[in-house]
Amino acid sequence: MNPKQLQRIAIALVVLLILWGLAEIFGTGSDTTAARFDLPKLTPADVDTVKIFRATDTLMLVKRADTWSVNGHLASSQAVTDLFNGLKDTSCAELVAQSPTSHAQLGVDSSSGKRLELIKGGQLLAGVIVGGRGPGWQGMYARRPGENQVYLIGADLGNVVERQLDDWRDKLVAAVEPDSVREVRVQLGRGGYALRRDDAGWRFATGARADSGAVRRMLEQYRTLQAGGFPTPAEADSLDFRRPNRRLTLVGRSTPLAGLLFDSTASWWYVQRAEGGTVYRVESWRLPQLFPADSSLRAKPDSAGK
Prior knowledge:
Number of helices: 9
Strand order of the largest sheet: 4-3-2-1-6-7-8-9-5
Shape: elongated
Distance between the termini: 102 Å
Number of strands: 18
Oligomer: single chain
Largest sheet: 9 strands, antiparallel
């Protein structure tokens, strides 16, 4: 091979490298444009209705003033926050398919996909169909309604659209600051006890001194009392809060801070506020913490000054 032939080969290689570089530059720009999956940057203030359509049910979140409800029940503020946080990063996306034949495989078809709609004043602001998890459970497959392109998005919408109704509902039973409590009244069947706090600490209504540390541990249970769930309709029908199994009243300086009624079935304990309303399920193992025996609250000889 003579020098001229080597020179031609070298020139040809340089040209090919230049063409390859240009193809990479323009090709990458094209893929980036095609893979954009931006949804409007919405906050709870921008939306008054969220609908989640699934194969088995439909969830509807509605905002009244600053309060959200889900299918007629008070919604968890944290669950609503998780929803809008999950919508923030949808622009980080990878185009993975463009044919409708891929929709069923990726879980974004009409039968298995979860359709999420965000609405304000009856106007649809944004919609997305969320499918299965990505490789290694990283990200979610998604597409916009009416489009065939399927994207792998980094946004964490999977947990949001897969939540069951009970997981959307607010589970806060009571929220009482322990230092605000001046009196505790506990009814256990036909028995019970009462505690009052003065400048010297806690005492039973009989005058016997209580272990203030033990009373404080009891009251901490009511600082943020969260339910484990809710009764089924059949379980709710079997409960009778007119004659509760247990009753607790927390009183401040002059007014009640919380009144709770407890009843049980063969398997679970349930609680309702004294004024009525939602019935919540509580785990049985929590009962000794919520209603400690009066003997465990009595001051020991070495703690009489507490």
